[in-house]
Design goal:
The protein folds into 3 domains: 96 residues, Orthogonal Bundle (Hypothetical Oxidoreductase Yiak, Chain: A, domain 1); 197 residues, 2-Layer Sandwich (Ribosomal Protein S8, Chain: A, domain 1), CATH 3.30.1370; 42 residues, Wheat Germ Agglutinin (Isolectin 2), domain 1. The chain has 352 residues and is of the alpha+beta class. The chain has 11 helices and 12 strands.
Length: 352
């Protein structure tokens, strides 16, 4: 696959988003998050998402103009509502505001209603964890339904991702996972290829286990199983309900009234361990936990790997070697650049 310098991709993404109508600071935030996401190895939510974002800007799903509305704010919290403003830009603003409040508060909580798609959750937590703060992040879109309650056949929830940063004396543990057995994107990928799923990850419209991704588009639609699958899906269903309460109900952007797809509810909480048992005491414990996990005898051919370690390794490798994107995506970006009257970086010509 062609490889490109991170700055080349960042500049091109920003230029294309500006050409689509976004103000430069908002476009730059989106470009930065996509490139960092690619650096961390999350291909589906990196630069591969740029064509979709461009379409969403042009169609109005991502708003070109508008400002953040403050619903409520105090020394230790903020609650914002946005008219589909760029999710990456809103998240950067919310994190900056939360970190300022954390200078005088032990815990800061933020909610955001109706921002556009924010992308990979893990990307936002990396910097927070590196600053030795503990954080959790929950996000979902009330305009999407693809997961049935455990024991049900009709969709009510969606993949409802939940993420956390757990700092240590070294790099933080970075969790980012859906509360469904697999993501919507993974099911859609199998459907595009016309391949059966490796296992019974979904139910058909009658509530029966299936490996056919096409049942998701039938009437009645199929549903993705909650995390835990057929036997223990009540566990994933419970976590999915948490995301609904924290990410949607608390932000005031939920499923009670019809919602058009593309607007997300966000819950972010950042904790300063120094205000509790002490930062060093906390970091000593989490670092020891990592040590013990690594010391566990491998049950297979690979040693134990903690969440976030692969992302850090990919980040280091691609900073040195360049970000890998498919030739098909590179060609799409060339075509989009030509249509927008933008000259892409020279590397795109060399890779053609």
């Amino acid at each position: 696959m062609p490889q490109f310098a991170p700055d080349e991709l960042r500049i091109l993404a920003c230029d294309l988003l500006v050409a689509a109508g976004l103000p430069q600071p908002r476009a730059a935030a989106m470009a930065d998050v996509m490139v960092t996401t690619d650096l961390m190895g999350h291909r589906t939510h990196g630069i591969a998402f740029l064509p979709s974002y461009l379409d969403r800007v042009q169609s109005g799903v991502i708003a070109r103009t508008g400002e953040i509305e403050v619903i409520s704010e105090g020394p230790a919290h903020l609650a914002w509502r946005t008219p589909r403003l760029p999710g990456a830009w809103v998240m950067q603003k919310a994190i900056e505001a939360s970190l300022r409040k954390l200078e005088t508060q032990p815990v800061v909580t933020a909610t955001i209603a109706n921002c556009s798609h924010i992308g990979s959750l893990q990307t936002y937590l990396k910097g927070i964890g590196e600053r030795k703060f503990l954080a959790q992040l929950m996000v979902t879109d009330p305009g999407v339904i693809s997961v049935a309650p455990f024991g049900g056949a009709d969709p009510v929830l969606t993949s409802n991702p939940i993420a956390a940063a757990i700092p240590t004396h070294d790099q933080p543990i970075l969790l980012d996972q859906s509360t469904s057995l697999v993501s919507n994107a993974m099911i859609a990928d199998y459907a595009r290829r016309g391949e059966p799923l490796p296992g019974n990850w979904i139910l058909d419209g009658q509530g029966q286990p299936s490996r056919d991704p096409a049942v998701m588009e039938q009437d009645p639609p199929g549903t993705i199983l909650p995390l835990g699958g057929l036997d223990f899906g009540y566990k994933g269903f419970g976590f999915g309900l948490m995301v609904e309460a924290w990410g949607l109900a608390l932000s005031g952007h939920g499923r009670r009234t019809p919602q058009a797809r593309g607007g997300q509810g966000v819950y972010l909480q950042i904790v300063d361990p120094a205000a509790f048992a002490g930062r060093d005491a906390f970091l000593d414990e989490t670092t020891e936990l990592v040590r013990r996990c690594h010391a566990s005898r491998p049950s297979g051919s690979q040693p134990v790997r903690l969440p976030g370690e692969r992302a850090y390794a990919e980040h280091a490798r691609q900073m040195a070697e360049g970000i890998e994107i498919s030739e098909a995506l590179a060609q799409t970006l060339r075509d989009r650049s030509k249509a927008a009257g933008i000259t892409p970086p020279a590397a795109f010509s060399r890779a053609a």
